[in-house]
Amino acid sequence: MSAAWTAVPLAALLLAAATNKAVSDQVDQGQALYAETCASCHGANLEGQPDWRRRLDTGRMPAPPHDETGHTWHHSDATLFRITKQGIAAVVGNGYKSDMPGFENLLSDEEIRQVLDYIKSTWPPRAREAQVEITRSDRAASQ
Ligand code: HEC
Fold first, then answer.
1. Which residues have C-beta atoms less than 6 Å from ligand 1?
2. What is the mean pLDDT of the chain?
3. CA gap 130, 134 in Å, rounded
4. Could you count the other beta carbons within 10 Å of the beta carbon of residue 7?
5. Confidence class of residue 5 from pLDDT cuts 50, 70 and 90?
């Protein structure tokens, strides 16, 4: 077999390895950012605040879990990005008050994507697939 023949699959393998490495670096970076900026409210294990479905005495909602038991995976990529960047009040509008702040002064767009990629990486396949589908129909609707 000539060298050219062996070189092709090797290059493909190296490319695949580099891509996987890039994806896992992105997730590692996101995990560190999550621990620093989100875990205080959403929980170190993405479990959310206790009794998160019940409104607080302030009238605001507690932080929901980001794992499969919450509803983070019910939102498209675009919505998750806007919520994290601008905060919930800005996204909901109509004077809605929320304890979920926007992180635009603290995190770059790239860092927001990394945190969200980390959160997604913890979901089981059916939640991930459902969220991909929601993202797809959200995109189709906004075109
Ligand atoms: C100071 C507390 C606090 C911090 C820190 C915080 N959040 Fe939140 N987050 C909340 C609260 C409270 C809600 C629910 C707000 C509501 O429903 O009005 C929420 C909701 C959300 C939602 C919507 C979830 C859903 O199911 O609808 C997303 C997405 C989110 N947060 C992402 C993040 C990310 C990413 C970070 C870190 C970069 C973060 N949050 C940091 C308090 C916080």
1. 37-38, 40-42, 60-64, 70-72, 80, 83-84, 88, 98-101, 103, 115
2. 92
3. 6
4. 10
5. low
How is residue 107 written in tokens?
């995190």
In the chain, where the domains are located: 11-141
Between the CA of 54 and the centroid of ligand 1 the distance, in Å, is 15
Looking at ligand 1, which atom is closest to the CA of residue 103?
38
Tens-place pLDDT, residues 54-81:
999 999 999 999 999 999 999 999 999 9
Q: What is the pLDDT of residue 4?
A: 64
Residue type, 133: E
Kindly indicate whether the domain formed by 11-141 is annotated with CATH number 1.10.760. yes
